[in-house]
């Protein structure tokens, strides 16, 4: 998948009134939207769907880590080891994932897709699915990266299937 295709697919789910629900969505990348039958999705389900993969996998790293689920903790684990689907990035680029796992400051992790950089090379826009966005009427929104940059454990990873 090309980065332009990833961004187009990710943006196609915005404005569809998807509701946020932890653990929902992202099971079938062939579906036209990431949400489940109840029109619900979470951040990792959304990102997996946008990447064209299911959040449930048979990959040995994920099976060993958490029973085969691709969630934020698994993305961070993989991104630090580069032994599965994600490779670490020293600095952000458009199409990268910005992610943090569960930590002392966050009871759950969060992930989004970098959609724009500022003139200094920092992230200026991220598309993500969150409960905070849901308050705006749609859980999937393209926003400033504030929620991610507040977490000191945030990292950038690259999906190996992107060109």
Structure, explained:
The strands form two sheets. Strands 3-8-4-5-6-7 form a six-stranded antiparallel beta sheet. Strands 1-2 form a two-stranded parallel ribbon. The chain has one domain (3-159): endopeptidase domain like (from Nostoc punctiforme) (endopeptidase fold (from Nostoc punctiforme)), CATH 3.90.1720.10. With 163 residues, the protein is α+β, with helices and mostly antiparallel strands. The protein has helices spanning 3-12, 43-51, 60-66, 72-81, 131-134, 146-149, and strands at 19-20, 40-41, 86-89, 97-100, 110-117, 123-129, 140-143, 155-159.
The count of strands amounts to: 8
| Rg of Cα set | 14 Å
Domains (count): 1
Q: Point out poorly predicted stretches.
A: none
What distance lies between the first and last C-alpha atoms, to the nearest angstrom? Answer: 6 Å
- What name does CATH use for the topology? endopeptidase fold (from Nostoc punctiforme)
What is this entry, summarized?
This protein has 163 residues and is an alpha+beta fold. It contains 6 helices and 8 strands; from the N terminus they run αββαααββββαβαβ.
What are the defining features of this structure?
single chain, 163 residues, alpha+beta, endopeptidase fold (from Nostoc punctiforme), six-stranded antiparallel beta sheet, two-stranded parallel sheet, 8 strands, globular
Give the helices and strands, then pairings.
Layout: H1 3-12, E1 19-20, E2 40-41, H2 43-51, H3 60-66, H4 72-81, E3 86-89, E4 97-100, E5 110-117, E6 123-129, H5 131-134, E7 140-143, H6 146-149, E8 155-159
Parallel strand pairs: 1-2
Antiparallel strand pairs: 3-8, 4-5, 4-8, 5-6, 6-7
